Amino acid sequence: MFNNADEESVTHPLLLLRSTSNTTSQVAIVGSNLCPIESLDYEIIENDFFKQDWRTRSKTQICQYLFMKWTLCFLVGIVVSLVGFTNNLAVENIAGIKFVVTSNMMLANKYLVAFVVFTAANFGLTLFASLITAYISPEAAGSGIPEVKAYLNGVDAPGIFSLRTLVVKIVGSISAVSSSLHIGKAGPMVHTGACVAALMGQGGSKKYRLTWRWLQYFKNDRDRRDLVTCGSAAGMAAAFRSPVGGVLFALEEMASWWRGALLWRAFFTTAVVAIVLRAFIDFCFTGKCGLFGTGGLIMFDVTSANISYHLEDVPPVFLLGIIGGILGSLYNFILDKVIRIYAIINEKGAAYKILLACSISIFTSGLLFGLPWLASCQACPADASEACPTIGRSGNYKKFQCPPGHYNDLASLIFNTNDDAIKNLFSKNTDSEFHWSSILIFFVTCFFLSIFSYGIVAPTGLFVPVILTGASYGRLVGMLIGSRSNLNHGLFAVLGSASLLGGSMRMTVSLCVVILEFTNNLLLLPLIMLVLLVSKTVGDVFNGNIYDLIMKLKGLPYLEAHAEPYMRQLTVSDVVTGPLQLFHGIEKVSNVVHVLRTTRHNGFPVIDEPPVTECPVLFGLVLRAHLVTLLKKKAFLPTAVPTGIDAFNQFTAGDFAKRGLGNGDKIEDIDLTEEEMEMFVDLHPFTNASPYTVVETMSLAKALILFREVGLRHMLVIPKISSRLPVVGILTRHDFMPEHILGVHPSLLKSRWKKLRIRFPPWEKIF
Amino acid sequence: MFNNADEESVTHPLLLLRSTSNTTSQVAIVGSNLCPIESLDYEIIENDFFKQDWRTRSKTQICQYLFMKWTLCFLVGIVVSLVGFTNNLAVENIAGIKFVVTSNMMLANKYLVAFVVFTAANFGLTLFASLITAYISPEAAGSGIPEVKAYLNGVDAPGIFSLRTLVVKIVGSISAVSSSLHIGKAGPMVHTGACVAALMGQGGSKKYRLTWRWLQYFKNDRDRRDLVTCGSAAGMAAAFRSPVGGVLFALEEMASWWRGALLWRAFFTTAVVAIVLRAFIDFCFTGKCGLFGTGGLIMFDVTSANISYHLEDVPPVFLLGIIGGILGSLYNFILDKVIRIYAIINEKGAAYKILLACSISIFTSGLLFGLPWLASCQACPADASEACPTIGRSGNYKKFQCPPGHYNDLASLIFNTNDDAIKNLFSKNTDSEFHWSSILIFFVTCFFLSIFSYGIVAPTGLFVPVILTGASYGRLVGMLIGSRSNLNHGLFAVLGSASLLGGSMRMTVSLCVVILEFTNNLLLLPLIMLVLLVSKTVGDVFNGNIYDLIMKLKGLPYLEAHAEPYMRQLTVSDVVTGPLQLFHGIEKVSNVVHVLRTTRHNGFPVIDEPPVTECPVLFGLVLRAHLVTLLKKKAFLPTAVPTGIDAFNQFTAGDFAKRGLGNGDKIEDIDLTEEEMEMFVDLHPFTNASPYTVVETMSLAKALILFREVGLRHMLVIPKISSRLPVVGILTRHDFMPEHILGVHPSLLKSRWKKLRIRFPPWEKIF
Hints:
2 copies of one chain form a homodimer. The first copy, chain A, is mostly helical. Chain A is 51% helix and 5% strand. A 3-stranded mixed beta sheet of chain A has the order 5-7-8. The two termini of chain A are 31 Å apart. Chains A, B: Keywords: CBS domain, Chloride, Chloride channel, Ion channel, Ion transport, Membrane, Repeat, Transmembrane, Transmembrane helix, Transport, Voltage-gated channel.
């Protein structure tokens, strides 16, 4: 049986790597989290010391707090939009120069040289990105959305919000996206936004002596969580220039706790982003941004003033949604398997990681350069709205190897930046521009390339690849339906993107608004809503949202809002068992040190027993971090007799403020003399005297609601009938994990209370 | 001191009517709620009986439940869009015919006859609306948004979701809006949507023998709340043809509890609304809908392909927001006072109510017909894009009394339906069409007319009047700024609407999306965000959101999510006092009857005492409704000895299902013999054995978080030190009301912990 171990170190035993997903405990398959994953505490800690501190806060301090709350959001908005703009500017220029140089060589018929230059440039950029990621900050690899989502759920993965990670994420993302890998920048932008917010809320850096008194109010989990939520909204807003979509994305996908006030603050942050970006674009229209401005800052304007569609267009859209849902869940399924395989390679060491990344880069370059040769050249249309063939970077008609007056339709998609390819696919009045075989080749390439590119050791996003894959899928369906529908192929591409996004990421309102904002056409709304609803519903039948799958692989214990049906069959006492570590109100120092050194628990119940009280009484809950601070300050008593509340003079609120992860003091660092070990410490003023408690007969489902809605880290279980001890156990996040519960009660695996979901057939095992 | 009275009947003692807003208890100023306001219970009730019932549910039943959940949302969407369309069709046709007839008379120079016909038609329509509202369903008066908002917060005002209310709301709204009163239809549509959803979730009607087994699953507060949330989203979506805005409105303004799954369901509902409305509009474009189609179903298409604005346009927009915020809070302030004055009149009886409504109607008709005479006629522009002057109903250039070739700009705004007036104000390229004096007259008229029209006894909305007032205010500012800004006056009108909406209703994201959806121009986004943020911030400095003010006047105990600072200074034991009513696990029938008859409490702690147990133990909480069912079924024991669980054979889950308000059994209706009174009843199987408890030393702020986040109706307070009784008291919604707390602890009124807000000066007293 499991004891009430909370926040155990979740490492990644290689032995368990190949186990199926029905592992009984939460195990990280990917990532190298050698530090423990910590839970966050959103409860109001009410101990005497904090109460006293709160009472002494003046009105000025409250105003400072309010002022800082908004100022930080403003600053987050400014910084994130700056980063977003820099990112776009850099990618457009680096990738742009690469394409211009290669195209010029091809114009001069130097195809081999062009290929070598193209591959070498991509290889160099990928190598750089994977080098800095692997050696400086492995936490910056991947999209970052799963980690931020877990953080907002109350799980602090180590190092995800460090300055190092931020820098690697920004530089690595620019470099990786420029290297023509089939990856996106939206995920990394969200992580960047969250990271900026978290760093700002950390109250400066103690290491670099940058601290400011006003920032001290944000040194707690609640305020930092709110700021990170705003930051992730800003990141999304900057990635797609979609301020409302960014807020909704943070609300629907990222945040686990949400309040009206937060909605407003997030909205403010993204408004700042929108206005700053607008100013930059105004500036770039003057032509001072190099190659930026022709394709930059994604904005697929598909406005056609009078799009008309009628009820008879609903069935094809419905079909598009169904297939999109199936494709999306298949995408998730394969991605999951590929990440597991990559994990085996990546575990072998940094060199292997980099090797993998470089192989993918060479493979990608080969495909991008080689595939267009499969497509036949097409004659330029007489009424083309732009120069045909296009010489240079963006544009619908790429010349590639074709003779003058002809263009290569596959090259227009494949030998281009992702943003430009999306723009080409979304364009209206281009129904005859692409041949169906080119679109098919492109779709298959995108689908698999994006799956194989995600898991490499570099900042990689999923949004843009999925949009691109979906757009080609939608065009293909549009071509098959042909003239039986009023909708043009560009519109089908938009709907195809929506369906694949819905089928893979399983968002609704936020995706809808993001797509509306970047296509800038509100009349599409009902069709996009329809396609998203259908594809999400179909996808949910097969598996979970892609970020949840990745989160599971990373071993992050995400707490769902919804209780599984079998949780109604269990009581809390069914999952809390094992020995319980308790402290007394006045405890011997050596006992405290012993318990802290021998367990990894982060919270301990404090009880008062006779003769202090008449009968055993639960006084409250004390946190490991606070105990360590007490020991460090050596606030000891010579005897087991309390001496009043002079504790308030010995400590300041700053002593107990939450540190960044890994920066907190450790019990191992504290040296105590023999004499001190024999002394006593009065825990009363530092014990949270009103923890939330549940009675042992409460069902797990009902306890989960309290745990999740209030955002707890520890929940005390009290006995139904008063017994010798006033507390039965402690529940933590891990006790609510389905893996844990099903491990303790394996019989539930077969019960009819499991989630209704179609499983893939047993050939799943071949992976 | 107050005892733990829960859900006291909140009637409206006339004596307290003139008291200031600092009344110590929650008192209804308006509305005639003679029935008690009931709280709703979103907690999972875990008694043995329900647990047994849950265990016996088959997989089929779970699937039925899932299927019904989505089917109901689908049906709500269909019905609400039907109602919305009918509403629009009727208003456009009734008001349209009225304007056409009057205009024709004026063309024939019969001005007096035209005035009489116009006034009589309006009078008749208003009279009809107020008659049915006053005599059939007074609950249908007003916007309905505050009541629905309170319901979703857990307060069930009597009669708001009855079939009667629904019918009166729909018919009354059509009639009142057609009567040229300065009121809107959005609020009534939201109420209608919520009402449709609530009726569908009620499981048919027992009275008319319409019950269906599948609907039984929805006979609980949680599922009904979710359905009502979707219904209110659908209502908003239908009112403005704004599906995403509808979802966000329900999320931001209406819902107090929200989950990801609900977002998805609400989105589905509004998608249905959008698609059905689209089909109807397609149909109406064929010209079979009478006068509908030229101006119906609000959609102010202000697309101008290349709206350009730059950073230098930000300051005027900022200014617009600041003044809008001040105007909005002033609007709320005056409206609040007018409603209080109207309440005095309305209290005198139905005849007075109708008289008030009719006077407002005559006054309005006089203004609408009289004011345009103040404006001078203007020559038609040579390059007018439409016929000038317009003969008939809609259009920019109303002829009114002007000679041929001229138009009356004030009449174009004032002698028109509200929708058309908004459309005219929002139009681009009309900078020279309106004279500033006309706009000023129109603004002042709108501002006050909408304030004086809201409180009458008819279904009245606030959205459209505020949009219209704001649009004229925006145009006025645009004219004053003139050519110093690049923005055209139509755009200023849109921004003005946004600023007044933000200043009065204090929403952000949802208003932003609603405005975007009905103006259909995404490029406006950053400016609208800016103006909303500024006006909401400015407005919040002065007073609360308009719906919260109305809710307060109606005496609905709305529970805020955010704890007031002084709540951190109080513990729960500071607010629970007074005698506590307890039951024993096996209780004498006469005791139960006595307590139920003499108190109005809705929940009672159940304890087991020696000799049943060793020491007193809190067994759980039993609800009044369940006790009444027990008494009605006469499931009694001859002696105080439990006889096992044969209770499960005597009852079905349907016996304990939640009834519609007022339909539940009452203790007064139950007759018991002397003999039965001497028997015993075993409460154990029907007692919620795991209620949420808090320790008496917990701060009120922390307890509020639990109460609010989990959605409780009763919260048990347990002692810190075990004493004779295992429970100290019960907390209910009313114990968390600031009015109650400040009444018990008046010293807090002067504390520095009160909300930071600028108060209006003492001349407030003159009202």
